[in-house]
Amino acid sequence: MKLISFDIRDCNFLIVSEERYFVFQVPGGLQVLVSDLCPHRGGPLHLAQKKNNCIICPWHETKVLTSFLVKHAVPAVRNGKRMTVVIDVPDTANVMFFCKTILVNQM
Amino acid sequence: MNKKLFNFDLALETFCSNPLFDDYENWVIKDNPYRRPIGHKKSKIINFEEPLEKDNYFSYSSLIAHRMLCNIYHSDLVFLPKNSYPSIKHDLDLFYSEDTKVTGQVIRPVLEHHVFSFLEDEIDVTGHWTHDSLKTYFLSLPEKQEDFPSKLVEAILSSKNSKRAAIFLLIQLASDFLSEASGMARNIMGNFGEVQSDLFKILIDEYGYGVHTTKHSTLYEKLLRTHNLDDCPHAYWQYYLTSSFIVPNYVHYVSLDHRNFFRYVGALYYAETTYPFACKHLSKMLKELFGTNTETQYFDEHWHIDQHHSRMTYNNLVEPLLHKFGTYIIEDLIRGYEEFNLVSEMSDHDFIEQLHFIENIADYKQSTCTLDIDTILNPGHKSIKLKNERSVPCVNDTNTLLVVESGTLAITPCYDFELYLNPGERIVIPKNRVYATLVKSDECVYYTYEIGDSI
Fold it and tell me: What span, in angstroms and rounded, lies between the C-alpha atoms of B373 and B450?
């Protein structure tokens, strides 16, 4: 397992061994790290639309419950602006950090 | 027992009015563990129901609340004077009296909310944690500590008067180390299986396995005496920074309410895993400053034993608790771990800021030369004090300009250091920095002005 730490002011999107994750703002203020892949066919959930208690994938309009995202979020700890996550990959896995526009957090 | 004392405001007023918590005539309180000035000015109204925020944590209300909480927590602990009984029997009786205890317990939850609820905002534990992910998270800590320098030690060694800075640190640590493991002892009573016995093994180590000379607090007393410091608990109460209270008060806070037991275990793991390295740095620092033969047994003992305690806490507490109670407890374990991390960091940062103030206090005196009092919009507060009148150390919530009109006033930002101000002289006290005043002349007239950000 690999521990990854980052400042959430500088990074909101990760690629860990080619798997994509983004920081999702749950209604109510909590920030969780979730897979960017829609469970249907892998569409980019960071570009989804937020609607009521779901987000809607831009590819096939699959509705993914917010509670599903929270339940399956990557194990993470936020301490101030620092987030540390534990991802099930070898310690030597490659990690890339990005600061992107997360559309789903903007609505 | 007056039932009206169960009202918060009345309980607060009664608690603060306790003669034991009133101003004390000397800076150092000799052989009386019950005299602990709170320093709350009656004229200053504090809304303790409003929680503190991390960014402005070391405020006036924070210092006052933490002093009160320490007094409340310590009323559960046994302190006996070394030599001054029965002359202070009255103080002992008053410290442990019903009124003191009850008023303390009435105000305690509100004070705890005031000083600790910011932790809920600062720390989130999210996602689907498993046993394996927790293990990875926790067991990464010892490795991280190996190469981690101590910012505290670096600040002391790079200061203009490193020996004074080191002594000042030893005084701050006395707030906790002279009653070491008292918070831990709160978690040992009752009946909760094999984990209880393993926790007891750690506790009994802290108490030297019943051999007084090896008890950790005894080792710390020896260290203080080496530097000609008083080894009685809270002799230096008046020099404690807010940061000297925050860590031990946090431990008492999570230990008093056993709903927080798993949080306590997470905090314990963090403490036992980071202390060896902190103690190794401190031992090395003392040798560098005071010679290779200087007394360091307290820190050397912790470097050795806490490596075992870290392993014992993980293998014999965290793992069995996880097996028994499942992943439901992971959030609390991590929360305790991170909370202890955060309060320790804040404590170190506050000490370093105070050190910076002490080191550069002459500049704070000089820097006021160009400040025109006529431009300060708020009226100053006039103080007229007589010789040897002293203030209880306090902090201000804004930058404060202090101007001496007549007489001589000493400003004390730490133990064994005074800066004199003569007529016409002024100094800016930065906000959130602890300081006290002592009148050196027959009479002194001085003014204090809140000056906001203008320095």
Answer: 11
Q: Helices then strands (H, E): number in chain B?
A: 17, 8
In chain A, residues with a C-beta closer than 8 Å to the C-beta of B122 are 79-80
From B127, B136, B140, residue closest to A76, measured CB to CB: B127
Q: Can you tell me the distance from the alpha carbon of B166 to that of B210, in angstroms, rounded to the nearest whole number? A: 30
- Tell me whether B327 touches chain A (CB under 8 Å): no
Minimal CA separation from B54 to chain A, in Å? 9
pLDDT in tens, A14-38: 999 999 999 999 988 899 999 999 9
CA separation for the pair A21, B248 (Å, rounded): 39
pLDDT, one tens digit per residue, over A58-95 is 998 899 999 999 999 999 999 999 999 999 999 899 99
pLDDT band at B265 (very low <50, low <70, confident <90, very high): very high
Q: How far is B303 from chain A (nearest CA, A)?
A: 26
Contact B133 A84 (CB under 8 A): no
How many Å apart are CA A64 and CA A55, to the nearest integer? Answer: 5
Question: How far apart are the C-alpha atoms of B188 and B200, rounded to whole Å?
Answer: 6
Residue in B179, B240, B223 with CA at minimum distance from that of residue B28? B240
Q: What is the ipTM of this complex?
A: 0.84
- pLDDT-derived band at B142 (thresholds 50, 70, 90) equals confident
Instruction: Give the number of other CB atoms < 10 A from CB of residue B120.
Output: 11
pTM here is 0.92
Give the gap in angstroms from C-alpha B173 to the nearest C-alpha of chain A.
Answer: 25
